[in-house]
């Protein structure tokens, strides 16, 4: 409507003034509602052509959309395994921070697993005492076998020497018997030393490995027991959290609730996502200036700029399935998804995440015009393009004023 009014000032109005003052025709006589088209046909035709051209120019170079909102992520409160709620530590709508306990689940089998793992660790610790005692016994056996071997060896050496002197004091059979005894004592000493090595290996390697394995089992049981308590992994506010003791929760079917993050990109308090017409893909670039007005913050225009432009259109995505894709099923064109960020810090303060917004983007060719690389006609054209952006800015401000009226009076709610 605003564009038509502006165009009529330089088309229909001059035509009417020409008919009135040059041709002497007056309103109500020659010019009436019935003769308006014939009398003002040139002005009306020029106004229609100019208005359509102006609207096309404005909406192409300064696109607008009502599909804009500060989207936010939600984090589901999901246990790793099913269980029945034992304690609930928080309430719905409560603000939580990272590490805040939310609820605990009851699980007797896990407690029994911890007790069994602790008993296994204590059993292996008691085996260390037995192993140290066995090692001491093995050392004593080695010393005893060593002493017995040395006595037998000395006795054998003494009698062996006497037998070689030729006095027939010691018989050959007695010397051979002592040699056999020395061999037996040597074997007994080797066996005692082997038993000592086995006892030492049990203390140094076998039992530590068994204890480490048992301790790992205990740690795993404690970790699994710790999973009975669910903690918040992000800062945010609890929503749809209506659990009570005795409720059953399942990671595949029923979650415990959701957390709406309060900070970061996922909070919906730093960026606004907008979907513009695909025709504006060559106009909207990173850094393009924009403005928004939102229902949750009426009568306010928030200056923004384009932070990123999605490089694909969502309706063109293809997923592998058993049915061939028919392009006709994707006849509805998708939008160009753009992420807007506030031009000034705190620009989205007071805007509720998820609210409905209207967004305008504005082409800006000032630097290109001043570069001197354009022809005069092109520079004049781009000057005109930048100038008509004020029409869309005015329209956005009119929409900001009318949004509460439209939402409260004419919506029927």
Number of domains: 4
Tell me about the largest β-sheet: 6 strands, antiparallel, barrel
> So, the CATH homologous superfamily of the largest domain?
Efflux pump adaptor protein, beta barrel domain
Q: Please give the order of strands in the largest beta sheet.
A: 1-10-13-12-11-14
Helical residue percent band: 40-55%
In sequence order, what are the helices and strands, one letter per element? HHHHEEEEEHHEEEEEEEEEHHH
What count of helical segments does DSSP give? 9
Number of strands: 14
- Write down the overall mean pLDDT: 82
* CATH structural class of the largest domain: Mainly Beta
Shape: elongated
The computed structural class is alpha+beta
Give a quick rundown of the structure.
With 413 residues, the protein is of the alpha+beta class. Helix content is 46%, strand content 17%. A 6-stranded antiparallel β-barrel has the order 1-10-13-12-11-14. A 4-stranded antiparallel beta sheet has the order 2-9-7-4, with no helix packed on it. The protein has a 4-stranded antiparallel beta sheet with strand order 6-5-3-8, with no helix packed on it.
């Amino acid at each position: 409507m605003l564009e038509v009014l502006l165009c009529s000032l330089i088309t229909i109005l001059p035509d009417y003034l020409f008919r009135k003052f040059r041709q002497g025709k007056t309103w109500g006589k020659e010019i009436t509602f019935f003769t308006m088209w014939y009398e003002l046909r040139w002005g009306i035709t020029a106004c229609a052509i100019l208005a359509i051209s102006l609207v096309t120019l404005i909406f192409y170079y300064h696109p607008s959309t009502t599909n804009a909102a500060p989207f936010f992520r939600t984090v589901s409160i999901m246990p790793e395994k099913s269980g029945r709620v034992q304690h609930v530590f928080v309430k719905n709508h409560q603000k939580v921070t990272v590490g805040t306990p939310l609820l605990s689940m009851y699980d007797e089998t896990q407690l029994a697993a911890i007790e069994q793992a602790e008993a296994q660790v204590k059993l292996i610790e008691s085996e260390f005492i037995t192993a140290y005692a066995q090692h001491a016994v093995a050392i004593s056996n080695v010393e005893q076998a060593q002493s017995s071997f040395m006595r037998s060896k000395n006795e054998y050496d003494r009698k062996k020497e006497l037998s070689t002197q030729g006095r027939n004091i010691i018989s050959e059979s007695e010397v051979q018997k002592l040699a056999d005894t020395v061999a037996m004592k040597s074997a007994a000493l080797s066996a005692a030393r082997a038993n000592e090595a086995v006892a030492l290996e049990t203390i140094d390697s076998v039992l530590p490995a068994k204890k480490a394995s048992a301790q790992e089992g205990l740690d795993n049981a404690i970790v699994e027991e710790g999973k009975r308590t669910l903690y918040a992994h992000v800062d945010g506010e609890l929503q749809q959290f209506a659990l009570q003791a005795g409720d059953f929760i399942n990671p595949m079917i029923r979650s415990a609730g959701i957390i709406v993050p309060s900070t970061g990109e996922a909070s919906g308090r730093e960026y606004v996502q907008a979907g513009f017409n695909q025709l504006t893909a060559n106009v909207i670039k990173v850094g393009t200036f924009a403005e928004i007005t939102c229902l949750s913050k009426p009568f306010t225009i928030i200056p923004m700029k384009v932070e990123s432009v999605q490089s694909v259109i969502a309706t063109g995505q293809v997923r592998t399935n058993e049915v061939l894709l028919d392009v006709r099923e994707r006849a509805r064109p998708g939008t160009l998804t753009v992420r807007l960020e506030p031009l000034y810090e705190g620009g989205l303060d007071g805007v509720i995440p998820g609210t409905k917004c209207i967004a305008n983007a504005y082409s800006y060719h000032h630097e290109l015009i001043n570069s001197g690389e354009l022809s005069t006609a092109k520079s004049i054209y781009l000057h005109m393009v930048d100038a008509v952006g004020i029409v869309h800015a005015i329209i956005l401000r009119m929409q900001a004023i009318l949004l509460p009226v439209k939402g409260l009076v004419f919506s029927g709610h």
